[in-house]
Design brief:
By secondary structure, the chain is of the alpha/beta class. Helices cover 40% and strands 14% of the residues. The protein binds pyridoxal-5'-phosphate (PLP). Residues 59-61, 85-86, 88-89, 131, 157, 159-160, 181, 183, 193, 195 line the site of pyridoxal-5'-phosphate.
Amino acid sequence: MKVPLMNLCAQYEGLRKDIQKTVNDIMEKQAFVLGETVEKFENEIASYCRTKYAVGLNSGTDALFLSLKALNIGMQDEVVAPAFTFFATTEAISLTGAKPVFADIDPETYNICPKSLESRITKKTKAIIPVHLYGQCADMDPIANIAKKHGLKVIEDACQAIGATYKGKKAGSLSDAGCLSFFPSKNLGAFGDGGMLVTDNKELADRISILRVHGSEKRYMHQEIGINSRLDSIQAAVLRVKLKYLDGWLDKRRQKAEYYSKQFSSLSVSCPHVADHAVHTYHLYVLRVEKYSEKLLTFLNDNGIEARKYYSVPLHLQACYKSLGYEKGDLPATEKAAEESIAIPIFPEITTKEQDYVVSKVKEFFNTKKT
Ligand SMILES: *Cc1c(COP(=O)(O)O)cnc(C)c1O
């Protein structure tokens, strides 16, 4: 038996007719960039995330980069972020000319630790980027308090967490700017790259709307230097079809996750911890295994189960950040999580049979002392 980490073909199965029709409409109109469909989708996302504005962009990376730009962050500035995340979080900081400063994580939720974050603040710090990792919101209240105390902006990297909530509020709506990704593998995935910025700040939304078209509000008039980062109509059309199903899919992800957690309760693995403040959306279901993670990973892969490490090399130890001067041991909770965590297959359409197979192989690994 083979179980993939995710299965987009299974999702497409139920949507084929609607998506083909809507994409066909766009093809007939031959209007591909921004436009009416993108505007409709922006309004729907703003309403879904309960923010006033939403700006469609080319990717989540661009949402992060343009948020920082629009908040005037650049050379000489520092931005604090976790090192246990996808590279784009801090790549966006580096691209503005600012310096990423890495904070450690809470070992239970994998999200930025407010205490560690506060210890990294200097006179140069301008902003904080908490990441809602794996689909669970970071502990935003203490982060907001720290930001207020030190006069910092907060940008949420909500790329993995659309629909997740923190004390009842939606991911993306908890800070100055929320960044979403519609990369195909995300919980709401396009047929290519896509992203969005959500915010209640009109000035910020307006400025990012200008930055995404080469810093131009009026054709051929450039008031500042921007980039090309527009959302395509075809992507918006596909995403509008999928958005209607999103909450149902997130419910299914939670059901599947709870099923796993129940099955694993007797084993020496740690299942995802759901904080009191959070409704988790399980973009990934990540097990944590002391000492034997590498062996378990190989065993699962050898048995046709697509398990993977997210993320095996934390960002402070990446080659490109060597000049920042971090060393192994600087972020103990991050480094331990990088060693011990394994994502196993989860997606709304995963069958009980597939889950039972994964469970049986994890159990077999521990029972037969392949350790
Ligand atoms: C996917 C992701 C991004 C980047 O999104 P893209 O749309 O691929 O550019 C940023 N941060 C995190 C945590 C992500 O998972």
